[in-house]
Design a protein that fits this description.
By secondary structure, the chain is an alpha+beta fold. The chain has 2 helices and 4 strands.
């Protein structure tokens, strides 16, 4: 497992990346970023041949949640890198 989970009573669970290979963390970070970009680009305005911009509509809740989770994990990886 990449990170160990430690529960402190009613407090929020915290993760630790002690002993984890930094290269592994970078691979995970890049993978998360690629997933975020893929979701966001899917809902970005697209220029069609007719000159009209098309949009797929609002981002569905499950995709918005996925983006949020990816970004939160990326921030965690960055914070752990600092310490």
């Amino acid at each position: 497992m990449m990170a160990s989970v430690v529960a402190n009573g009613n407090r929020k669970k915290s993760l630790s990346l002690k002993g984890v290979d930094p290269e592994t963390c970078m691979i995970v970070f890049r993978n998360h970023w690629a997933q975020v970009v893929k979701i966001l680009e899917k809902h970005d305005p697209v220029h069609s041949r007719s000159g009209v911009y098309l949009r797929l509509g609002p981002v569905p809740g499950d995709e918005a949640s996925a983006v949020q989770n990816y970004v939160e994990h990326m921030l965690f990886l960055l914070m752990e890198e600092e310490s």
